[in-house]
Amino acid sequence: MAKTGMLEKLKGKRILLLTHENADLDSFCSAAIMRELLGGKKIFSSIAVPSHINEQALHFAVSQKISFEVNPSLENFDAIIIFDFNDFEQLGRLRQKFQALKKSVELFAFDHHIIEKRRIVKGKNAFIDPNCVSSTQVLFRKFWRQFFKKMFFYACVGIVEDTGRFITSNAESFGDFAQCLKNSGKNYADVLEFSRHVAQDDEKIAFFKAAQRASVSDFNGTVIVTSVLSFYQGSAASKLLELGAHIALVCGAEKNGTTVLSGRAETGFMGKNKFSLMRHLLIPLQKEIGGEVGGHSGAAQWKGNTKPEEVLERCVSIIKARLADARQ
Ligand SMILES: [Mn+2]
Predict the structure, then answer these.
(1) Which of 24, 84, 233, 322 is the most exposed place for a label (fewest CB within 10 A)?
(2) Distance from Cα 217 to the centre of ligand 1, integer Å
């Protein structure tokens, strides 16, 4: 187990705990865990989100009475700890403020995304473990000795959310989850309550559009489904996976002109084919057409300026080449 000296070093400092833009449960719960960890050492800190918090994370914050600030001023802090991201892209509107300041504050990151080249925090202050299913699991693994009830519960919520209620998981995350749940004083239903996702009407319509526009290719038993949608690409891709795709890719140009591609891959398929969306699709795609990428092996996103149809075409040929290679 790693040393926990980092918390003590923060004594007497003004600390900001920052989630990524469009804060989700994992990012928010991670910040909440850190606030408790520091609080346990009588170190005060505050939580902030760049400009938007998603519905589930907001519900969680309200019901747990965890206060947070939106669009914080960054000037008055000695240390900023970022959760569930390590890429400037994820700062949303705070990006410029943050870049201007980053040399004058001490930065830390807790994350479980695959490490990228342009990361914000490097070296000893970066606590990144791509083998963890959630950032709350990263925190659990490092600080579990100092956890108390609430933090175990927050860790559970992050794990359930980021695994899509254990659709993507592994023996370690089941083990860690079981340990967290046992110590949380809560039951599984309490955890599930927060990860329930109620689709908005426009989101439901987006699902139907994605299904209607879907193009399906069966490559030696691998079902690849692509579709074009200018919003809700991520949740639509998840829906297409539920309908039976092994890989679902939804791409579209958003209002600001940026093309966004969201991909999802089914766990059984990934295991059998040793396939990772980041490694075998998005990073090769980025090499071909540039853009920015982020995500995990089973859920990932690309952003850039290429036409959606071309992005999807390239994706399908990259996947087919990969699968053909894997067969040999
Ligand atoms: Mn996460």
Answers:
(1) 322
(2) 30
Tell me, in angstroms, the distance from the centre of ligand 1 to residue 113's CA: 7
> What's the CATH code of the domain at 248?
3.10.310.20
190 and 211 part of one domain? no
Q: Are residues 63 and 137 in the same domain?
A: yes
Residues 235 and 104 in one domain: no
- Ligand 1 center from residue 111 Cα (angstroms): 7
Q: Which amino acid is at 90?
A: Q
135 pLDDT above the threshold of 60? yes
With beta carbons less than 8 A apart as the criterion, state whether 24 and 54 touch: yes
Shared domain for 247 and 298, answered yes or no, is yes
| Amino acid in the structure at residue 177 | F
User: From ligand 1's centre to the CA of 83, what distance in Å?
Assistant: 8
Domain count, the chain: 2
**99 Cα: distance to centroid of ligand 1 (angstroms):** 23
Residue 316 φ then ψ, to 5°: -60, -40
212 CA distance to ligand 1 centroid (A)?
30
Long-range contacts of 71-77 (CB under 8 A, 24+ apart): 72/16, 72/18, 72/46, 72/48, 73/97, 74/16, 74/98, 74/101, 74/105, 75/101, 76/14, 77/13, 77/14, 77/15, 77/16, 77/105
In this predicted model, what pLDDT tens digit does every residue of 7-61 receive, in sequence order?
989 999 999 999 999 999 999 999 999 999 999 999 999 999 998 999 899 999 9
Distance 327 CA to ligand 1 centre (A): 32
